[in-house]
Amino acid sequence: MTTNAHTGHATTARPTPQPTSNAAPGFDVGGRATHRNHGDHIEAEQATAAVEHPHADHHTAYVGPEARRAAERVGHHATHAAEHTGNDGGHAGHAADAVQVGHGAGPGGLLITQDGYTLDLETTIAEPGGIDFRFRILGPDGAAVTEFDPIHDRELHLIVARRELTGFWHVHPRREADGTWAIPLELPEAGAYRVFTDIAPRALGRTITLGADLAIAGHYAPQPVPAVGRTAEVDGYELTVDGELRTDGDLLTLTVRKDGASVTDLQPYLAAFGHLVILRAGDLAYVHVHPNGEPGDGITPAGPGISFHTTVPGPGTYRLFLDFRHNDAVRTAAFTLTAPQSAERTQHR
User: Fold this and answer.
1) CA distance 135 to 118
2) CB-side exposure of 182: number of CA atoms within 13 Å?
3) What is the model's pLDDT at position 253?
4) For 217-226, what is the mean pLDDT?
5) Residue 100: per-residue pLDDT
């Protein structure tokens, strides 16, 4: 009943040079994997113990009745997480560990300034090809912020996505002494892009996501969002997603196989067995979810299933990007799903 939104990923994956130890994989404009310098991902990400998230009150990104209903369903989803992972109920005590990066009272990434903090890009228009991408996070006093609490092993997670959701990069720039962040990016195609930063400024005491537009100059041919589908292929790996996107929360389980066999030895990447970024087509509302359980907790299996308790901000079409690490390389699989109008809202129409 589903279609494969990524036919050809496994055969078109190709390396792209990246002169930084913090580079992570992406998808190019055609949806093909552009896995840059995978060996450099090994660094601190080999640790088997997860870094404790400094903001436990942000396990659910949205407040209000829908979020409260989601919290009430955690126990129910924990049982299903165990069924998907074959862990015999072990997730029952860890379902709440699924961290959805907090964005206050609404979806993240829609604002360039939030709670006094501003994403200040050095340039908002660039030429296709290699870019020395630089930016600052400005605080309420207008000065560059230099003190951040870590979020899954990093002070800042940088996400770059094409507006049509046909390209995706999750990278980790270096912070210079003056508070400027810098990283080489390879954006080969003209088009409209959105830049997201997940940060936890120490003075703020919680996580926020800021977003800003980036344009790559040249002839721009808009493309449709990839078709809805629950399967993806990348570098010989086959992935499937079970569960639904809902405004009141649901459990998503992404299962990893290679050559038809279940992968049961996933490696920790940024203190987790997977990282899931969800973007809504149209406005690019942003959700970044960390999975149930953590490496080294004695309960969470290293595959084949990676489970995430996920809440989306409203109905629509969403693109899901899963980063996972196996055989010392980080890869990204992408899916397109839809979220329906909530039952409660439908009944009151």
Assistant:
1) 10
2) 7
3) 97
4) 93
5) 55
3-state DSSP of the chain: CCCECCCCHHHHCCCCCCCCCCCCCEECCCCCEECCCHHHHCCHHHCCCCCCCCCHHHCCCCCCHHHHHHHHCHHHHHHHHHHHHCCCCHHHHCHHHCCECCCCCCCECCCCEECCEEEEECCCEECCEEEEEEEEEECCCCCECCCECCECCECEEEEEEECCCCCEEEECCEECCCCEEEEEEEECCCEEEEEEEEECECCCCCCEEEEEEEEECCCCCCCCCCCCECEEEECCEEEEEECCCCCCCEEEEEEEEECCEECCCCECECCECCEEEEEECCCCCEEEECCCCCCCCCCCCCCCEEEEEECCCCCEEEEEEEEEEECCEEEEEEEEEEECCCHHHHHCC
Stretch 163-171: mean pLDDT, rounded?
A: 96
pTM: 0.73
pLDDT digits (tens, 9 = 90+) for 35-62: 333 333 333 333 333 333 333 333 333 3
